[in-house]
């Protein structure tokens, strides 16, 4: 950023009390908010870029803008001439996010008497009572003197004088700027703000099928959900979304400001097809552009569809992992376990997951940002029923999306230890298992039987009924086909040494 005319790096202000907008400062963008470009990140922050109309005279200038959020990071602000023609210099910056509210007004009127509303009487006329604000009660109970008595709560809704002189109604940035000559320019203002986030969600709709035995074709819809809890409206915004784990120091103060924020759902217009969302690799991340101007108001949740794919091939994978590993168990290089019951547990659940190849050949191929994915299937009447959900991490093109569906109802497993022998002098253990997978469906199913070699670091399969694949240093996978209304057995013997 050596070419920037002004890179403002100031320490964050310690307090944000409500202050006046000083009259010596010229108010920039007084006629209305300029369009804003937003790049929203997964980690509850965004980069905002807008313009500030500067009318500078030679020498010292004082400029104010309210086109900022209440969660702006003051030391992230950059103000510059994008054309590089005006070499102005920012000598001082002040930021005030202390927008006036009821508590700050109570504090401002401490020691004074105001009216409190108690609703309306039987005659429809308003009922008010005078109360002297002895203590505003910002961090403790308020203390009000009313009708000769002191009470520790407000006697009604406080009514303040209508004048707003000296009150800050919007978050405000004030600069002192030195200019070598008079100039009029649209300066670029960029800053980081907290309180904005986005996430991806995916819906997969599968057709009606009584028994799914192989690949099937589904429809996939991807949405981005944006949340604006920054405290500022963006009536016109060009929005990009950054996907990836960008290094960012978390602001604990801003995180606390998120609590209690309201959210409202904005319906997506369906009468005209919007421009498609595009993506590009950006540094070590991916940048998604909505390619249109949208409104994103404070407290609003907005959804935009960014991917729609039909005839996507989806595979269904059944896996039986009958052994139950002890939580937190890890095997050291010189360790072993010669207890016969160790690892001999069994469960009956056969897990089901859906797998989708994220490739152009499969009508996809766009890098998919992390998010939640839901699976639906149409029943015989065409109605969609929910059948499972999971989360996916950032998935590049040509990788496979794996979604847990749940446990199969008609496919179950059983696992039992059939032989065990340990020789402490020879440092050997021999162990045998029999795994049975049962299928009550009307069609055959393919099941992957997973087994874990966890008694010792060195092991060798000495007998087996079925070929296996070695998934990692301690896990074997036996692929088997279980006939309709039938069962299939897998047996093996493992020899451990240490």
Structural topology:
Blueprint: E1 26-27, E2 36-41, E3 45-56, E4 59-65, E5 78-80, E6 89-96, H1 102-108, E7 113-120, E8 126-135, E9 143-146, E10 149-151, E11 157-159, E12 172-179, E13 183-194, E14 196-206, E15 216-228, E16 234-243, H2 252-257, E17 264-266, E18 278-282, E19 285-296, E20 300-320, E21 349-357, E22 371-378, E23 384-392, E24 400-423, E25 428-439, E26 445-452, E27 458-464, E28 469-472, E29 475-482, E30 486-497
Parallel strand pairs: 1-4, 2-16, 14-22, 17-20, 20-26
Antiparallel strand pairs: 2-3, 3-13, 4-12, 5-13, 6-12, 7-8, 7-11, 8-9, 9-10, 14-15, 15-20, 16-19, 18-19, 20-21, 21-24, 22-23, 24-25, 25-30, 26-29, 27-30, 28-29
Counting helices, strands and paired strands, the structural category is mainly beta
Low-pLDDT residue intervals, each spanning 5 or more residues: 1-24, 250-273
Number of H/I helices: 2
Radius of gyration (Å):
33 Å
- Largest β-sheet summary: 14 strands, mixed
User: Roughly how many Å apart are the termini?
Assistant: 59 Å
What percentage of residues falls in helices of 4 or more residues? under 10%
Give the beta-strand count.
Answer: 30
In percent, how much strand structure appears in the residues? over 45%
The average pLDDT value, as a whole number, equals 82
Shape: elongated
């Amino acid at each position: 950023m050596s070419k920037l005319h002004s890179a403002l790096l100031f320490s964050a202000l310690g307090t944000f009390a409500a202050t006046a907008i000083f009259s010596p400062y010229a108010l920039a963008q007084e006629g209305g908010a300029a369009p804003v470009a937003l790049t929203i990140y997964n980690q509850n922050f965004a980069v905002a870029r807008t313009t500030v109309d500067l009318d500078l005279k030679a020498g010292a200038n004082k400029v104010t803008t309210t086109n900022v959020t209440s969660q702006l990071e003051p030391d992230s602000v950059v103000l510059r001439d994008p054309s590089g023609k005006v070499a102005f210099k920012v000598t001082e910056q002040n930021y005030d996010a202390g927008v006036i509210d009821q508590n700050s007004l109570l504090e401002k009127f401490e020691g004074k008497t105001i009216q409190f509303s108690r609703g309306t009487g039987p005659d429809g006329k308003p009922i008010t009572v005078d109360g002297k604000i002895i203590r505003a009660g910002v961090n403790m109970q308020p203390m009000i003197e009313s009708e000769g008595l002191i009470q520790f709560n407000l006697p009604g809704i406080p009514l303040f004088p209508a004048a707003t002189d000296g009150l800050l109604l919007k978050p405000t940035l004030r600069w002192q700027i030195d200019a070598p000559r008079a100039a009029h320019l649209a300066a670029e203002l960029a800053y980081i703000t907290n309180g904005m986030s986005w996430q991806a969600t995916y819906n997969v709709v599968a057709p009606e099928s009584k028994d799914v035995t192989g690949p099937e074709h589904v429809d996939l819809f991807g949405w981005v959900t944006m949340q604006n809890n920054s405290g500022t409206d963006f009536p016109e915004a060009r929005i990009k979304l950054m996907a990836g784990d960008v290094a960012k120091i978390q602001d604990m103060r801003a995180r606390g400001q998120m609590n209690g924020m309201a959210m409202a759902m904005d319906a997506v217009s369906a009468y005209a097809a919007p421009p498609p969302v595009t993506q590009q690799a950006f540094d070590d991340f991916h940048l998604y552009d909505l390619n249109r101007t949208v409104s994103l108001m404070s407290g609003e949740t907005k959804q935009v569809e960014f991917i729609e794919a039909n005839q996507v091939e989806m595979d269904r994978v059944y896996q039986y992992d009958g052994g139950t590993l002890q939580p937190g168990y890890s095997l050291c290089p010189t360790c072993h376990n010669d207890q016969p019951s160790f690892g001999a547990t069994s469960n009956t659940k056969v897990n089901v997951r859906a797998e989708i190849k994220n490739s152009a050949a499969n009508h996809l191929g766009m890098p998919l940002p992390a998010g939640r994915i839901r699976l639906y299937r149409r029943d015989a009447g065409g109605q969609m029923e929910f059948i499972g959900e999971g989360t996916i991490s950032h998935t590049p093109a040509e990788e496979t999306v794996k979604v847990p569906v749940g446990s199969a109802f008609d496919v179950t497993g059983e696992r039992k230890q059939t032989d065990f022998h340990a020789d402490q002098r020879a440092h050997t253990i021999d162990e045998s298992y029999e795994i049975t997978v049962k299928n009550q469906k009307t069609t055959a199913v393919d099941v992957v039987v997973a087994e874990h070699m966890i008694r010792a670091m060195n092991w060798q399969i000495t007998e087996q009924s079925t070929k296996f694949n070695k998934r990692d240093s301690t896990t074997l996978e036996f692929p088997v086909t279980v006939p309709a209304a039938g069962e299939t057995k897998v047996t093996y013997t493992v020899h451990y040494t240490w």
